[in-house]
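Justification of resources, computational component.

The compute hours requested in this renewal are based largely on the per-chain cost of generating structure records like the one below. Each record pairs the submitted sequence with a full structure-token output. That output is archived, and it is also reused by downstream analysis tasks.
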Amino acid sequence: MPSRPNAPRLSSTVLGATVLEVLVLAWHLLLHPSGITPERPRPGGRPDTGQPTDRAQRAGPGEEPGSGTPPAGTSSDSTPPVGTTRPAEAVVTPLGAVQGGGSDADRPVILLHGFIDNRSVFVLLRRSLARHGRRHLESLNYAPLTCDIRTAAELLGRHVEEICSRTGQREIDIVGHSLGGLIARYYVQRLGGDRRVRVLVTLGTPHGGTAAAPAASVHPIVRQMRGGSALIQELRLPARGCRTLFFSFWSEWDRVMVPVTTARVDHPDLLAQNVRVVGIGHLALPAHPAVAARIRQILDSPGTVYAHDTAYTRDAEDAEDDADAEDATFPSGPRPPIARSTTDDATVA
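The structure output for this chain reads:
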């Protein structure tokens, strides 16, 4: 009997991704209680630059520790508000990097968890970053009762200012999983956070809104993550001059992103590269070693990664902007043209 040409088959990739998701879920459920409490402050208020340990590290209220990473220091409520003017001596590159901001290892990295989650989701990623030299790893453990992405973004902005003040750094990098990436994007794009955030990496973030789990729309934040929400529409507004460089990881096996392409950044004014992930589901994105390796590469030399993987386009109207920026220095090599479209050339398998 001839086989039906359209008969569905369970591929090894789908099976592997499903098994991995189940294993990560079980492992994360075990770790979840350890991430409920914030990191404990370290006396002196300075980050620990020693070797990573296997214990959760410190943070102040609303900050996230990580397992197996160097401590991140303490937090303070006495922080300047977001939106202050850029220092007159600051020289901003096309990536939003401020010259003289210290080495890559000194630049703080903030990890933002997703909806109904906490800092424990980043245990493996944090350990990986620490083992490869990152000394300042912190994150914001926002309250589970948070009901507004805009409010969470404002809190993130205060957190960023406190970290920059405490560490003496002028810029930071952010890695956000799911909702965490959307909070960080709102801060960068709508609250002036691009003056502080050099690189924003998002993992399975609903940039275009997701239609998954309709019953969950009773929660205000879930409604904000829907495709037609006022917040998603706000993120589609013009954002010319935004200096942060975006790297958005998306996967065809991500069942929380509906459609899966919603996890890609698609905005004409943003410097963005979409990274396609193969065989990895939503929960596994912040835990998979291949994703961690790619994130390390991005944080270490975003200019090189961007120039290598991204195809650039230049509109005629950008010529004047480019001419004004000719004396700017693009990190890790020559400055590429201003990107006006996103690509999916980069793939993580």
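The longest strand covers residues 197-203. The radius of gyration is 20 Å.
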